[in-house]
Amino acid sequence: MWLWTAPAARAAIATRNLAVILRTYRAATGQSQRALAEALGYDPTYVSMIETGRRDITDVGTLRRFARHLGLPPHSLGVTDAEAADFAAMLQFGESTIRLAGLARESGHAASAVNELWPLIARLEARTADGDADRDVLLLLGRARAMLGVALGDVLPEERLNSAAQWTGRALRIAERLDDPELLSHTLRVHGNELRKVGRKAAAALRLQHAAYLAPDGERGAALIQLARVAGDLGDRELFDSVLPDLLRFVDEAPPTLMVNPFAAREVHLRGLVSTGRAALAAQLLQRPSIGPGIAAPTWRAIERVTAAEVFRAQRDTDGAEAALREAITTAVTYRLPHQIQRAIRAAKDTLPTITELGETALADLRLSFPAKT
Description:
374 residues; mainly alpha; 434 Repressor (Amino-terminal Domain); Serine Threonine Protein Phosphatase 5, Tetratricopeptide repeat
């Protein structure tokens, strides 16, 4: 699967020279000319002549045969027929599918994103299973797996969130092999966040710290906001206090996005203060002039209301906690966010039985529509 992803192999493919590609293939696999010829059904002298440049292959059928055996798309050997066009169209379709799935998820329609991504991933994995592991295919597959994991992380309940972490982990394995810093940073970040959700907080923190270090400027805010969240979840005051100023500075200076904006940063700040034993400071922050959600993704609206309720509860403000949790559950139902309903149920435990009942009823209704494929 990884044969053609190494720098030397990629350089060989870039030449589109069959002789160079054959020599590179044999060097990587340790296969002799005779063994390669036998596998292809040719005489060893024929392969030798190709490798030494004494035989130039232009026949499309022969080039296809070599491409199939080597695990390369035909266009890598200069074949530009309908099959090569189909391959290019698949890559373009895949890019569009992932981009649209991301937009759907960020606008509160993660279930639609899941449904769009399944067919693409199945097609890409079928290609790799057939031995066609072109770098472009693997990059696309890595991004698709990561997006699927993130979308599943929104629509699955807590007891099934391991599936989301598994998909982002599969994406990370590809990124680690492809020497693509942008994909590596992205997959470290999303996998770290999904690990946080399933309780593997220390592992999550390590991945998110690595992601923040590698992230290009435009992605750094997302890594920082998730790193601050896991620091708070760990109760690690030192880590939280070291990350928060960078996050707040980034939010002040960069244009807001659906996932990184003042509203989301305030939620992370509130949660981190509560989790690190500073509920009084969190209450003071909550009492400051409110920051509207603006362009924040619907997910953040539900998250923020549960966090606000936790602050109210810490201050023994039952009415404030109940109102915030009602808003959280309403938003979570609208956008199919079972994990946030489960957070609301925990926040209401023992003190707000009406909210507990409301949340359990909402969760039962949502369970009927959870994706079966995970």
